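Summary of Year 1 activities. Much of the first year was spent building the evaluation harness for sequence design. The harness presents a backbone, in tokenized form, and records the residue chosen at every position. We chose the following record to illustrate the format because it has been used consistently in internal testing since the harness was completed.
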């Protein structure tokens, strides 16, 4: 009867919306969430976690801050890009197909302020700082009344392009789908309608066009409103344990202590005027659960669904379950769950009073006291000139004992990607494969710990770049802090350490024992020289001091000292992108550009390729001896092949033939003579030496290079006095 009565009153006050709310007030007060017919259900929590694109899907209205999946409201067809990698020298190339798509996702059916984090398939796509972890063009539209159509949608749809005014939505342009199995990933968004908590009264008022008002302070971090005003207000009444009262002002959520006139005046008017003795009854225990499970969104766990359980005192049967699409803390959730559980036990007690009409007309939702307890009026019925009042007992509120178990949030680190740092390095033939092509590698990293990868382009000039795929894993590189003097390649250097500063503070170096060093551990390039180190100790300035150095590996002896700020690069295969193709050839300039999600422009590195890996190694053990016929110069060749040969066996040549270019130069006169010889020795005739001596030359330098099929080796030299 209360539902019918308040429905009629509501229609008279507020039309169809008022009628819906009037019926809601009667239902919510007559039949709370415990016992009686099941009320209308709000959105299940899982509905906010699953992205939809179906026509007619309801878009919730977001209040405060929530994590929502949204609804795809516009999309282009998949864009296919075809690229071929590898190939050459009789090897087939590999054709790869990449796909991208542009689409818009509706997030809220009312305006919102901003988007925070974004997750794709559960992984963080956009961080709290607004940085994207993947390359994408993103735009957010708050849903204001003067909102313009997105340029991409306008280009595709023409003059009929929708602006989606009044709706907050996000647009992704040209999202690369390779990392998502060539499909649009399942996205969820942290959406802020406003900063800070929002009261449930404000939500009900906004949903009902201010037909529901009040001053109850109950607040949540966020709320997703779906369905009609009746559904939303009913969900708040049932899921938050609030009371909805019909007054002369309309429908009101009263605070915990309603005005005295609303409580006491009806009681005074009823005193001594009861037509019938009040009757007290108690509903069967079978109608009331013993415990309640309360499901919500936990703000401390990135808005993942949480559940708190509260048990009421006394007997009962079964477990009630409440889904409340609000974001809150676990502590708030357990307090609400405990309050609802206590109320369930109290509402078994019902009171019926038949009273004469008094000077004050009570309203549904008002409270009265009787038999030492507090009661809430849940129904009013006019019967034979009397007023039949129905009320349920209010719980006796004691101290709340929260026992919330929030669980753990398994978060991936939210680290800003930052700009890309790029390094090009040309290496000797470490594999001892006898390659005829240069070995050039690209190393990329970022000073920020959040850096992952970037897209690479390669060419012989900035105007001839072509894409070559992504960078390898983040490399470890930096620079020398102090100069490093020249040292022999035949010793282990414990007292001549190298001090390096790495690009990122999260980059680390470690020690290696003899067995690990033999297997290739702790190999690095300092400039063009390859070294290994035994120990790496971090000093107070955050730099690494490297000792136990093996210098000049793979024929990379440094003939000059390395000055401060010389490049330092750790050589780990999975961290290096090896360059291939016609652009990488000895004598050609090389330009590499990297573009990552944290780059405002592009990182660029370039140099001229020397072809080091395909050239003979520098001759060693040069010496000169005076003989009767002149100056005898000898040296020993080396080979790029067969590193582990017997000391008694000549190593393989590694070239088509054995040949050397020998030059005699002086500091004052420059080049004096040149020879080509086919053995590792040369006799400089005495007559030439006498002529140079007569010209005032006191000292000459003998410069020796092996001639290979791809060019000359680095030079070996020896100074000789001819005075």
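For this record, the design step produced the sequence shown next.
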């Amino acid at each position: 009867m209360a539902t019918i009565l308040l429905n009629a009153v509501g229609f008279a006050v507020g039309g169809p919306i008022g009628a819906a709310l009037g019926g809601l007030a009667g239902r919510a007060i007559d039949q709370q969430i415990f016992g009686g017919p099941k009320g209308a259900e709000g959105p299940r929590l899982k509905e906010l976690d699953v992205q939809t694109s179906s026509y007619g899907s309801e878009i919730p209205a977001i209040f405060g801050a929530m994590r929502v999946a949204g609804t795809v409201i516009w999309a282009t067809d998949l864009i296919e890009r075809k690229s071929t990698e590898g190939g050459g020298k009789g090897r087939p190339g590999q054709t790869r197909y990449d796909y991208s798509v542009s689409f818009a996702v509706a997030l809220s059916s009312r305006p919102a302020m901003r988007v925070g984090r974004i997750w794709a398939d559960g992984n963080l796509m956009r961080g709290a700082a607004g940085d994207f972890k993947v390359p994408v063009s993103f735009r957010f539209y708050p849903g204001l009344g003067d909102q313009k159509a997105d340029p991409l949608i306008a280009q595709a749809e023409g003059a009929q392009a929708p602006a989606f005014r009044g709706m907050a939505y996000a647009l992704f342009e040209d999202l690369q789908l390779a990392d998502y199995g060539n499909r649009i990933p399942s996205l969820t968004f942290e959406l802020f309608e406003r900063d800070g908590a929002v009261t449930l009264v404000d939500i009900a008022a906004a949903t009902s066009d201010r037909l529901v008002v009040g001053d109850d302070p109950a607040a949540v971090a966020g709320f997703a409103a779906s369905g009609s005003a009746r559904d939303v207000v009913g969900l708040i009444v049932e899921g938050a344990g609030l009371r909805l009262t019909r007054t002369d002002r309309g429908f009101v959520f009263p605070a915990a202590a309603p005005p005295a006139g609303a409580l006491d005046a009806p009681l005074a008017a009823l005193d001594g005027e009861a037509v019938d003795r009040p009757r007290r009854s108690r509903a069967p225990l079978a109608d009331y659960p013993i415990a309640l499970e309360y499901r919500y969104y936990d703000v401390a766990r990135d808005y993942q669904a949480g559940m708190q359980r509260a048990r009421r005192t006394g007997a009962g049967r079964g477990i009630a379950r409440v889904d409340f699409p609000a974001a809150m803390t676990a502590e708030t959730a357990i307090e609400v769950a405990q309050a609802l559980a206590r109320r369930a036990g109290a509402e078994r007690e019902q009171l019926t009073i038949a009273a004469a009409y008094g000077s004050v007309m009570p309203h549904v939702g008002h409270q009265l006291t009787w038999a030492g307890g507090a009661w809430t009026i849940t129904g009013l019925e006019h019967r034979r000139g009397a007023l039949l009042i129905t009320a349920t007992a209010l719980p006796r509120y004691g101290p709340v004992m929260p026992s919330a178990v929030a669980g753990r949030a398994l978060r991936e680190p939210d680290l800003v990607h930052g700009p890309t740092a790029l390094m090009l390095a040309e290496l000797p033939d470490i594999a001892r494969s006898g390659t005829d092509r240069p070995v050039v590698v690209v190393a990329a990293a970022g000073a920020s710990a959040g850096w992952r990868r970037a897209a690479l382009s390669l060419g012989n000039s900035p105007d001839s770049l072509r894409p070559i795929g992504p960078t390898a894993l983040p490399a470890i590189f930096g620079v020398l802090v102090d100069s490093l003097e020249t040292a022999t390649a035949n010793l282990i250097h414990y007292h001549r350490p190298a001090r390096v500063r790495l690009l990122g503070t999260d980059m680390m170096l470690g020690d290696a024992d003899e067995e690990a060093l033999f297997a290739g551990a702790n190999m690095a390039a300092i400039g063009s020289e390859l070294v290994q180190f035994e120990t790496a100790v971090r000093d107070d300035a955050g730099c690494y001091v490297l000792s136990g150095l093996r210098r000049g590996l793979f024929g990379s002896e440094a003939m000059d000292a390395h000055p401060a700020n010389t490049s330092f690069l750790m050589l780990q295969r999975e961290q290096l992108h090896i360059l291939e193709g016609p652009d990488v050839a000895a004598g050609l300039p090389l330009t590499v550009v990297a573009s990552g999600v944290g780059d405002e422009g592009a990182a660029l590195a370039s140099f001229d390729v020397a072809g080091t890996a395909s050239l003979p190694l520098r001759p060693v053990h040069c010496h000169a001896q005076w003989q009767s016929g002149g100056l005898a110069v000898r040296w020993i060749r080396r080979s790029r092949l067969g590193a582990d040969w017997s000391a008694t066996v000549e190593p393989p040549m590694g070239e088509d033939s054995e040949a050397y270019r020998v030059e005699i130069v002086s500091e004052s006169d420059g080049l004096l003579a040149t020879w080509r010889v086919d053995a590792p020795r040369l006799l400089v005739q005495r007559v030439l030496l006498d002529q140079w001596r007569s010209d005032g030359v006191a000292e000459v330098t003998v410069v020796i290079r092996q001639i290979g099929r791809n060019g000359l080796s680095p030079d070996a030299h020896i100074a000789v006095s001819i005075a």
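The radius of gyration is 41 Å. Quantitative recovery figures across the full test set are reported in Table 2.
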